[in-house]
Each structure stands twice: as C-alpha cells, then as structure tokens.
Specification:
Elements (H helix, E strand, L loop, with lengths): L12 H18 L27 E3 L5 E3 L2 E3 L2 H6 L8 E6 L5 H14 L3 E4 L8
Parallel strand pairs: 1-4, 4-5
Antiparallel strand pairs: 1-2, 2-3
Length: about 130
C-alpha cells in the first residue's frame, strides 16, 4: 500500500473573506439603515440665529472666582440668597473651560443644598461643518 501524500494546499479563505466583505458593503450601500423622515417635513434652520449668553447666569472662572452680573460673589449661598423667587427655581452656571470639574460639581451641590430645584450648566456647542 502506498502512503497518501500530504498536500500543502491551503484553502482559499482570503477569496471567501473578500467576497463576504464585498457583499457586506453592497448591502450597506443599497439598504436603508434608518427610517427616512417624512419627505414633506421641513426642518427649522438655525444657522442664522444669533447666540448670546444668558444674562442671569453665575460665572465660574478657572481660579474658582464667582461672578454674577459683573460683580464678584463670595459663595454659592450668597448668590442664591440674592435671587428672586422666579430666578431661584433654575440656576444657570457658565464655567470657564479651564475650571476644575470638582469645583463645578461642588458648586452645583452647594446650590442644590441652598434650595435650587435645577442647576443647569451652560456650554458652547461646537458644530463642525
């Protein structure tokens, strides 16, 4: 009896992978990944809107200094005590980019402890075009 020869032939798995990849790309390009919006819908355009900072916000500087309407504020309790009943429901903070996150979180906690129902952090939203 003769021994069977071991062949060193590899299976063409690379070709199979290429075919599967091409099929995947084809189905992704030709199919819908998300439901389309209603074709008659016209979205609101905000490109021409003029943005400005809210006037009644507490400003937190990078060094931890607090400002309100251009005047320095000693503490979160002093700031909250100076607000009217309407202003005291929602408090807005505008932090400096370099302000430590721990300082911002502690300030928000102090405002909540003083009685603020909601504390909002006002940021700049960067949209890339």
């Amino acid at each position: 009896m003769r021994r069977r020869r071991d062949s060193n032939r590899r299976e063409p798995t690379i070709a199979l992978i290429n075919v599967v990849f091409l099929m995947l790309v084809f189905f992704m390009v030709t199919s819908t990944l998300a439901r389309p919006l209603d074709p008659d819908l016209k979205l609101v355009r905000t490109a021409e809107l003029e943005g400005r900072a809210p006037p009644d916000t507490l400003i937190l500087h990078a060094d931890g200094q607090l400002m309100y309407r251009g005047a320095p504020i000693a503490s979160a309790q002093d700031f909250y005590g100076s607000l009217s009943a309407d202003e005291a429901e929602v408090v807005r903070i505008v932090p400096d980019e370099a302000a430590p996150a721990t300082t911002l979180v502690n300030l928000a906690r102090e405002l909540r402890a003083a009685g603020a129902e909601r504390v909002l952090i006002v940021t700049e939203r960067g949209l890339e075009r």
